[in-house]
Amino acid sequence: MDLITRENPARVAEIVGSVPVTDPAAVDAAVRRADDAFRGWSGLPVAERVAALRRGADTVAARLEELAPLLARESGKPLADSRGEIGFAVAFLRWVCDEAPAVLAATEVDDDAGRLVVRRKPYGVVGCVTPWNAPVILAMLKLGPALAAGNTAVLKPSPLAPLTITEVAAALPAVQVIHGGAETGRALAGHPLVRKVAFTGGDAAGREIAATAGAMITPAVLELGGNDPAVFLPDFALSDADYERLVMASFATAGQVCMAAKRLYVPRARTAEFTEAYLAAAERVLVVGDPLDPEVTMGPVISAAAAARIRALVADAAGGTATPLGRSAPGHDPASGYFVTPHLVTGLDDHAPLVAQEQFGPAVPLLAYDTEEEVLVRADAGELGLAASVWSADEERAFALAERLGAGFVFVNTHNRTGMSLRAPFGGVKRSGYGREYGREGLLEYVQSAVVHVPAAFRPGGPGMAPGAYPGGLHDEPPRSAGAVRPPP
Ligand code: NAD
Q: Which of 74, 85, 133 to mutate to test the pocket of ligand 1 (most atoms within 8 A of CB)?
């Protein structure tokens, strides 16, 4: 049996664990098991499903201190962030449990136009394909709503961080976990018994997943990449703590976050002041080293290939000036793993690869601008539109610009995870994907409306088809439901 063996990206000689690759026959068997389980799970009252999910949340919460170091060791995410990610996944699942009964409730109208029931029905088996950068929360954003709504799920996590999420998923009901790379993801997304695909990842895989699901007429939710601009209006007023939060908005998880602040647009007249304060804040809060060291706020990137790609982006920043940021933890040996020195890069034009592409690593460009209209156009350039931020001392002014930006989520006076809300739908515009996670919309992704309707005309004792009713012709007054005729008093 083939194994996926995961090394610690901070100490590459250390093997953290391994999982077996699921072969195509076993993918098929997992989907069939999930399909078999669907009737029973979806037939439970929502209160029972939610109670089972709450028990799962409690199990994961009780194992937090054991799971957080595992996540840190397989992903390179600092221990506090690993703890935060798992804790947030538990909080999200509990939030789903609180909201699901009301959001999923059927609506019923019974009046003189007839009786109409609209139910929120689960799809069946949901196939989830997830990335490595936040393997627990990004899976939970799919599993929690899908399961609460009565679907069963098959999850394929990334082979680069499969260990912690496998433990977390084992605490939940109605989930099968399979392992492998693109081939396994393809087999899952294209399986005829998968009724909905939920994907988070990059552009190339997203296109392929969308095509694979589309070929089966399977609907999909796609959460893809971003190249988020952070726009500082001329009146921005940042405290030291704001600068520190901003630095971490770009460098948390070594910049490998879909909604990291990836381009900083600063008014030309204030770039010197901004740069000085930014470098000082980075010196205070950006500490590079082993993720298990409690002082460390930035670990390695995920792989040798990612490290080489990001170093090349910085080295190729022709015409720009790359300034190293932050400091190393005492005793840190950068050669032990996939460490990349974080950089702020100034003096680039908007066509430089570091500006025009999603860098997904610890290097951020600072770009000067002159007018608000100009920065709006530059911030919106490109094919991606995941998140953005506007920073201003005047909240109204910030909201006014935010509403004009082409992004699915605009933060004001913060960026990245410090701006998230469980109740706020998150997802991209343009080629950052479609569908939403979080919030009421995130739950509704996993249900379809199914209707039962009897027009009043055809209820026992009703008048039957009226002469003017559809398809016969026009009414003087539009009916309240097609074919419905007010019954005689
Ligand atoms: P990736 O696209 O390489 O892989 C994501 C998942 O898809 C993995 O499980 C992988 O094995 C699988 N996969 C890869 N190719 C596939 C194919 N052809 N068919 C089926 N499955 C396939 O992404 P990654 O490197 O793991 O993650 C980085 C990307 O994810 C970045 O672009 C980032 O911005 C994006 N991302 C988006 C969000 C969001 O919410 N919008 C969140 C996190 C990450």
A: 133
